[in-house]
Write a structure and sequence with these properties.
With 130 residues, the chain is mainly α. It is 76% helix and 0% strand. It has a single domain, classed as Ribonuclease iii, N-terminal Endonuclease Domain, Chain A (Orthogonal Bundle), CATH 1.10.1520.
Length: 130
Amino acid sequence: MSDKRACDYSPLVLAYLGDSVYEQYVRNRIIAENPDLPAHKLHRSAIRYVSAEAQSRSIGEIEEMLTEAELSVYKRGRNAKSPTASKNASIGDYRRATGFEALLGYLSLSENNGRLAEIMAAAFDNADKL
């Protein structure tokens, strides 16, 4: 799909897709790095990366590496009015995480897989340092 067509989707639809894309990336990476962990511990490890708070911190660390178009998609997602809110995160963290997920959804739909992998790896690595 073209970048223009991918950008036509609602930022919350992009975030919905981006959430699953990042969750799968995190799970695959954790399993690859810890193949002998039981499922419960794998799940607890994944939470460190996919929570709204972790995603908010990660996007804050990698925001400077985003292109102008990527930053625009991130901001659309961050500023979108969602009918739901997180029980475990501040509204600011929740909105930044939504923007991060919208960016990942956009990159996935536009089939920019190299850039998608680069951003997810940077976010994962930064969340791991925090």
